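Contributing: when you submit paired examples, paste them exactly as shown. First protein:
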Amino acid sequence: MTQLLRGSEVAEALQSTITSEVRDLKARGIEPVLAIVRVGERADDISYERGAVRRAELLGVGVRSVVLPDDCTTMELLEIMEDLSEDDDVHGILLFRPLPAHIDEDAVRKALVPTKDVDGITDLSLAGVFSNTATGFAPCTAQACMEILDYYGIELAGKRTVVVGRSLVVGRPVAMLLLARHATVTIAHSHTADLPGVVKAADLVIACVGSAEMLDASYLAAGQTVIDVGINVAADGSLLGDVSREDAEGIVQAITPVPGGVGTVTTSVLIKNVVEAASEILG
C-alpha cells in the first residue's frame, strides 16, 4: 500500500519550534514581520498569499502586504523593495514571481537585501545553496521537500535521485540540497533521452516540471518515494500534481498528495525563515 506523505504533519512539527522561537523574540522586544510584495492579481499568487498570511498569524508573525497593479513600472517596484529593505521593522521579504514581462526582474531581485531574502531569490542566497554554505536561505519550496524527507525518515545518502525540472525556484536548488546530503542526483528535463526510463530507475523522484499528471505509470516503479511539487489547476478548478496519483498509488512506496503535500509545508518554511532572519538581530 502506498504511504501518503502528508504535509500537515510536517507543518505541525515545524509549528512547535517556530512558536517557541517567536515567543522568545517577543520577550526580547522583537516582533518578526514578513512583507509580501505582489504585482497584479494572479490567482496562484493570491492563493499562496492567503495561506502565508494564515500561517503567519497562527504562529504570531506580523505581515505587511504591498500590492501593485500589473502596469506598475520597474522604478515603482524598485522603490518599494528598497524601502522595505531599509525598514528595520521588516525582517523578511517575499516577492511573487514571475513578474510582468515589462519589469526588469533582475534589477528588482538585486534591490532586495540578502539578509531579508526569505525565499532564496537573490544571487547570494542561491550561491549559498550551490556552494553548500550557510549563506542566506534556500528557496522555500526546495527546502520544504527536504523537511518532508527528513520528517518521514527517508534515507538520502547514496540513493539514486531524479529531479524532473531544472528551474531556479525548485529543480536546481533542491538538487543541490540533495547532493549536500550525499544523494546521487540526476536533473532531468524535456530534452532528457528516455525520460520515463531515467525516472523509473530512481529510488527517489522529485517532480517539479509544472505539467499536470505528466508522470504516469510508465515513469514509476515499485519501492520509489515521490515528492510531487506540482500545483496545476484542472478545468474543474481542482488541483493536480505533476504525477498521476491514480497511477502512483499501488505502484510507488510513498508519495506526497496534491493538495496537502509540499505546498502545506512551504508556507511553514517561509515563516520559519522570517523568524530566523529576525533572530539574527540578536546575534
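Second protein:
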Amino acid sequence: MTTAANEYDIGKETTMSDPASRPLEGVRVLDLTVALAGPYGSLLLGGLGAEVIRIESPGGGDIARTNPPFVGSQGINFGAQADDEVSLSILNRARNKKSVTLDLKSERGRELFFELAKQSDVLLENMSEGATARLGVDYDSVKRVNPKLVYASIKALGEPSPFPGLKGMDIIVQALSGIMDVTGFADGPPTRFGLPIADMVAPLYAVNGILAALIHRGRTGEGQLVKVSMLDCLASWMAEEHFDVYAQAGYATRTGNCHDRLVPFGVYPTRDGHVAIAAFHPEWMKGLLDALEQPHLIDDPRFAKRGPRQKHAAELNAIIERWTRGLSSDELVHELLDKRSVPAARVRNAREVLHDPQLHENGAIMELEHPALGRVGAVGMGLPIRFSKSHAQFDEPASALGASNEQIYGDLLKLSKEDIDGLRAQGVI
C-alpha cells in the first residue's frame, strides 16, 4: 500500500510494508527551539521520521548545551564543562536532529533561513514573545515565501501575554495554571508537580496541531499558523475535575495522596514503603473490606455508596491506613491484588522505573549515546508509540553544534565549499 501521490501529501510516497518506513518520512522541519518545551516537540517529530534541521546560534547554540551534568571520556561531571563533554540534556533532547548554525540577526543569515523555509514543510519555534518579529522570521514573513508551510509556535503564557514582562518558566506556568493549588495536602502549601509538566504537555499539543495542519494541507494545499500556550494547556486540564463545584460544597481542593471523589483511591503507607490502592468499584470495595477483616463496613451508611464515602473519606482512609501500616508492600499487594483482584501496586522509586527492563524493551526508556563515545550509562526518554507497519524511535544520537552545516548548506541549498567557508569566516554560520 502506498500513499496517494500529489504535491500536498504530508510526506513523500513510501511503501508501508517496508519495516524501515517512518510515519513522517519526507517531512522537513525547521527547528528554532531552545530549552525544553520546543525541543521536546521537535524530538517527537524526529522520532516519527521527520527530517529535523535544528537552527542554533553560531558559537553557542541552545542554552541547554551548558546544562550540567555533562558526560565525556571521564564519565559524568557536575562541574565545569570540559572540551569533550556534552550536556545530558542535549543528549536527551537533540536526538534525531541535524544541527546547523545560523545567525538570524544578519541579513545573509535571514536570506539562508528563507531559502530553507522554501524547502520545508513545518517550522517549530518557542522563542520569547516578540522575538520572531524582531528577527523578521515571524509567520507573516515566512508565509510570504512558503504559504504551504505549517508554522507552529509554543509560548509559555501566550502571545500577547496576559502577564507582560513575566518570563514563563515551567514553575511560573504551574503557579498560574492552578495545578499547584490542587497538588499537595490540604494542610500543606501548594506543591510543584514533580516533573516540568508544562514544558512536557505543551509540545504534545503542538505536535497534535502540526499533524492536524499537515492533514489540512493535504486536503487544501494551504499551510497555517498553529499556536500553543503552556498556560492554556495546563489550565485546560484543570477543568477535568470540577473544583469550583466541589469548593462550593465545602470539599478541600488539595487531598494529598488520596482522591476523595473515588475513595478508597490513594497511596497508603506500609511497613517498608507505600502502596497505591484503587477500590472505588463495589466489588473492589468489598474485597478491600474483606482483607481488612471488616466486611460489615460495606453496610455502614458512611461507606455504603460513593457519595457518602466522599464526605467521610478521612474516616475511611484512617481505617485503611491502620491496616496497611502493619504489612509490607509485597504482603499488601498479595492480599489485595493476588487474592482478591483489587487494584494495588507498590510505589516504585525513580531509579527502579528508569532501569526497568520491560520499559527498555518497550522503548519507553532508552540508553543515551554520546556522538563520539557511544553509550554513556545514563537513560533518556524513549518514544512510547508503536506502529504495526512503521518504525518510530529516537535512534539517532545528538550531534555536535553545527555538525550538519556542510550537508544542509551544501547538499540542500547547493552552496559551494568556498561559500560555506566564507559564511563561517563572517560568523553567519
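If you have annotations for the second protein, write them as plain sentences, like these:
The first helix runs from residue 37 to 47.
Residues 1-8, 11-17 have pLDDT under 50 and may be disordered.
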